[in-house]
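This entry is passed on directly below:
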Amino acid sequence: MTVATWLQSSYATLSGSAYPLALDGDIAVAKRFVDAFAPHAAASPNMTILLDAGHVYAAAASALTEVAQQTTSTITAPVTHPRIDRIVVDAGTGVYQIVAGTEATSPAAPAIPAGKIPVCQALLQTTSTTITNSMLTDERALWMTPVTPRNL
C-alpha cells in the first residue's frame, strides 16, 4: 500500500484543487487502520458478513500478516428466540471465527475467546433471512491486539 502525508484537511485554509487532494491524502493515511476488518453486509445481502482486508502482527513470530477480505460462512437464523453471534479474528492469523450466542428472549453476546480480536456482533431474529448493516454492531478494537512479549 502506498503512503501519503497527513495534512489535516481544512476547507477554511485550503482552496481549489488543494482541498480534495488533501482529503485524498488524509484518507489514504487513515484507511489502513480505519478499514481493517470493517464488518458489513454483502452487496446482495444474504446470511453472511463481509470483513474488509486487515492486518495483524504476531509479536511472538515477529510476523506482519496481511489478510484479504473475508466472507463468513452462512449464519443460520435462530429457531425460537433472538440470538447474538459475535465475529472475531485470530490475533495471530487474522482468520475470522463465528462465535454463536445462545437463543434467549433477551440475548447476550457470547464471550470473546482467548487470542481473538472482536470485530462485530450480529443480532439475529427468528425471521432473519438476510444480514443487513443495521443488525451489526462494530466492536473492532484493533489497537488492543494482544501482544506476546519476546526475548530481546
